Amino acid sequence: AQSVTQLDSHVSVSEGTPVLLRCNYSSSYSPSLFWYVQHPNKGLQLLLKYTSAATLVKGINGFEAEFKKSETSFHLTKPSAHMSDAAEYFCVVTSFYNQGGKLIFGQGTELSVKP
Amino acid sequence: GAVVSQHPSWVICKSGTSVKIECRSLDFQATTMFWYRQFPKQSLMLMATSNEGSKATYEQGVEKDKFLINHASLTLSTLTVTSAHPEDSSFYICSARVSSTGELFFGEGSRLTVL
Fold first, then answer.
1. A19-21 and A73-78 beta bridge pairing
2. B98 to chain A, minimum CA–CA distance in Å?
3. Given an 8 Å threshold on Cβ–Cβ distance, is A90 in contact with B43?
4. Do B44 and A41 make contact, defined as CB atoms within 8 angstroms?
5. What is the pLDDT of residue A100?
6. Which residue in B43, B102, B107 is closest to A107 by CB distance?
7. Which of B106, B67, B102, B71 lies closest to B88 in space, CA to CA?
8. CB A25 within 8 A of CB A2
């Protein structure tokens, strides 16, 4: 079975400061991991994905995440927050070897950015 | 990236009526599409997996007679909410899997309000 836990339901940072959104996963098979962003009343946009290549993954808009198998973590970071980063972020795990590649979503982390 | 279009973006209907939501892959073929439901401030809940030319696979607890899914072509899946009631009000999001690569893309979502 697979699961994903986002450790913070809400994170608030000041503009220009670093962002850290935490995600832990559980998977019996080699996982693929994703971070998606959702702005209010919008669909999901892929920020980045890990699919067993490089463990440090760079995504769009300056975000990156590091896959740490020993810690079963895939935390999302950004060196300097921008006001436009305020949104809901979802960590997602899947494995094509299990459950037919269904996406398993975390509960989401709401990122607020203060001026 | 590839584009997934959902229509309508917003729909308001009276209780007891049926509403159809379309999910189209505009520039790729999608053998598989997924339908999700999202309540306010919550994560996405997978409702069903739609495969072109065959019956949809519903998740446990989702009423298949209530939420009719049809995937008649490689670029179109539809979700019909039959005899809608206020508790069916929600944000419905589809995603489509690119047949050739397995990548997933999300639609912009459809906001259903049942009065």
1. antiparallel
2. 13
3. yes
4. no
5. 59
6. B43
7. B67
8. yes
pLDDT in tens, B74-109: 999 999 999 999 999 999 999 998 888 778 889 999
The pLDDT of residue A99: 54
B67 SS3 class: strand
* Stretch A16-31: mean pLDDT: 91
Q: How far apart are CA B53 and CA A31, in angstroms?
A: 29
CB A1 within 8 A of CB A26: yes
- Tokens 């009065």 identify what position? B115
Segments of chain A assigned E as strands: 3-6, 10-14, 19-21, 23-26, 32-38, 44-50, 56-58, 64-68, 73-78, 87-94, 104-105, 109-114
Asked if the Cβ–Cβ distance from A41 to B49 is below 8 Å, we say no
| Portion 38-97 of B in contact with A at CB < 8 A | 41-44, 46, 49, 91, 93, 95, 97
Task: Note whether A90 and A108 are within 8 A (CB).
Answer: yes
For A67-79, give one letter per residue: b (16+ CB within 10 A) or e: beeeeebbbbebe
**CA A103 – CA B29 distance, rounded (Å):** 20
Residue B55 amino acid letter: K
Residue-wise DSSP of B30-46: -SEEEEEEE-TTS-EEE
Residue B23 has pLDDT above 90, yes or no: yes
Cβ of B107 and A43 within 8 Å?
yes
Side chain identity, residue B30: A
